[in-house]
Specification:
The protein has 198 residues and is mainly α. It is 71% helix and 5% strand. Helix 1 packs parallel to helix 3 and helix 1 packs antiparallel against helix 4.
């Protein structure tokens, strides 16, 4: 279960960082009146495969148990098997090594990209590029609305709070799929395609 959680949460964070990078590149080039070439399917597939392989590897770290191994898995609050802290060494390793590779680096990168887009006023006032940027921006916002509280409720607060807080964090994260669909349907061409399919 901890492998599945690390794989699912971490892949989500890193794929959102890939989307944020592409969005930032598109807006920056457009702002400088330079042509943007969208990535090929092969390139996108390679990025996704790289993320999945990396997160699959990271998920195996907690499967290894040993007296000198610095990371462990356990039943967090008795609800789900997740990476847990058992002593000072595991706490330091978790927050300084594992968590940055898990969701820390992509989360900080997405914050940086969001700030750069806002600071440099890269969002165009009208046009298809704006619609596309707003669409992906909403998906990135969903990532933060759904996963930032989850990270706090699963990894920060449970050490100090009751088990229902941990349960609430897991429950909140499972709603992301439905929220992402609702946000995607706000884009007119996607809504039209779904209506046509139905």
């Amino acid at each position: 279960q901890q492998w599945y959680c690390v794989f699912g949460i971490g892949s989500n964070a890193w794929l959102n960082a890939c989307i944020a990078r592409e969005l930032y590149t598109m807006l920056k080039l457009g702002h400088n009146l330079r042509r943007y070439k969208s990535p090929t399917r092969v390139h996108v597939s390679q990025q996704a495969l790289g993320v999945f392989l990396f997160m699959g590897f990271l998920g195996t770290w907690c499967a290894i148990e040993g007296p000198n191994w610095p990371i462990h898995a356990g039943a967090a609050s008795g609800l789900a098997c997740l990476p847990i802290e058992v002593d000072l060494a595991s706490t330091l390793f978790f927050w300084l090594v594992f968590f940055p590779l898990f969701t820390g680096i992509p989360s900080v990168y997405i914050i940086f990209v969001t700030y750069q887009i806002w600071r440099c006023k890269l969002l165009p006032p009208t046009g298809k590029r704006r619609l596309l940027a707003v669409y992906f921006g909403r998906l990135i916002l969903v990532f933060y609305i759904m996963w930032l509280p989850t990270m706090l409720l699963l990894f920060v607060i449970p050490a100090y709070g009751p088990s229902w807080v941990h349960f609430l964090g897991g429950l909140w994260s499972h709603l992301q799929g439905a929220v992402s669909v609702a946000v995607s349907l706000m884009k007119p061409d996607i809504l039209s395609a779904v209506k046509h399919m139905l």
